[in-house]
Amino acid sequence: MTDHIKIQRTMDHAWRYFELHAQQRMTVFNFFLAISGLISAGVGVCLQQGTKFSVLASLLGTFLIMVSFIFWKLDQRVSKMIKSAEAALCHIEAATGTDDILIFTKDRQAPTHNSLSAVWTYGRCFRMSFLAVGILGLTFTIIPHLMDFSTKPIEEASPYKRVCLL
Fold first, then answer.
1. Residue 151 domain-assigned?
2. Which end of the chain is more exposed for a tag (fewer CB within 10 A), N or C?
């Protein structure tokens, strides 16, 4: 088997590995968004019912924190797998001897900035989302015991009741 065929097969294997886990990462994040939205909607319904469902709203808030943590850990694992594939692809790119196709190598060598105006990676955006939803879950856990969000109409303070005449 020639070196060219070996490099091609290795490149195909590394690329499929990268593609599989990159797609998996996006799918997991989409599930995270859907589950978080459903839990938040459930908390909203509980809060509208007043103090009667405040314990359930707090439990859902706690569950939202757990969901954020679990999906964050899943994303860490998939991110590690993607970085392994990128390292393999960089090695293969270097073996080709052609500077024009060093896509992954050039991307890894690009300077990174930590400012808000810099380009953010998927990982950074996902981590910010997990943190924001986790904080929202903490808020949902505490707020139902401090405030009443019921949508029931306020009774008038008048001693006279309204009488409906037919």
1. no
2. C
